[in-house]
Amino acid sequence: MHKPWSAITASLTLMISSPIVGVICTPEPAKAQFFAGGLATEVTQLLNHAQLAKSYLKEAQTALNAIQMAKMMVREGVQLAEHPTTSITADLATLNNILAASQGLAGTMAQMDRQFTSVYQHYNPDPALSYFAAYNKWATTAVDTIRGAINAAGYQGQLLGTEQLFMGRVAAVMNSPQGRDEALELGEVIGTEEVAQLEKLRELMIADMSSKGAYLAQQIQLQRTQAAAQQSGFGHLNWQADPRAW
């Protein structure tokens, strides 16, 4: 049974806004999915992508918290080597991977929006807004903003996005206490800005999917109304035998 209008919209919003409990998902490159399985399948795809965005944000927040905790431990004179759960290199690698994966997700959402507007040509939430363009803009702006923050902190922002160069630089500076502190500072800069950018992506997805969810629910309601009208039309027919003799 299809969900009513309010249930679909509420499900989309709740899936994105409610906290994640349990195991954090490992980011994987998002793949484009198209709307070939009907309205219920489309809603499921939107919910799955919302969950993926939440997992990226949650893991970025976790990595940032770990880096900030490590900085606090350094200030208090605690030797990080005695705490194997604090891995600066691993946290930085996680942040770098999440950024790449979230760009892939934004690209997927852009493709889905283009496909959606092609299949449902009457869907037009706001003539002045193109979600396809908004997702592509976010993918570019997020990287540029984080690179700018890295440069402002005195590091080489152009290394971001090239995993081999980025992690090579981190490994090189980690050989000294000063380098370790620099790596922690770099990680906090990246983590703070990345979490902020992922929040913006999340807000964009909320607006996009709420709009699409409302449209799909209206289509379901329209189908129900048409089906009810057809059944009502047939149901009111009162067939009677012809009493005339031939």
Describe this structure in words.
This protein has 246 residues and is mainly α. The protein has one domain. It has six helices and no strands. The longest helix has 59 residues, at 177-235. The chain is elongated, with a radius of gyration of 26 Å. The two termini are 51 Å apart. Mean pLDDT is 74; it is low at 1-9 and 12-37.
Count of separate DSSP helical elements: 6
Assess the beta-strand content as a share of residues.
Answer: under 5%
Return residue spans where pLDDT drops below 50 for at least 5 consecutive residues. 1-9, 12-37
Indicate the structural class: mainly alpha
Q: Quote the average pLDDT.
A: 74
Helical content class: over 70%
Q: Which series of helices and strands comes N to C? A: HHHHHH
Number of strands: 0
Q: Nearest-angstrom radius of gyration?
A: 26 Å
Q: What general outline do the C-alpha atoms trace?
A: elongated
Can you tell me the number of structural domains?
Answer: 1
User: Biggest sheet, in brief?
Assistant: none
**Straight-line N-to-C gap:** 51 Å
Topology readout:
Layout: H1 5-17, H2 39-75, H3 88-119, H4 131-152, H5 163-173, H6 177-235
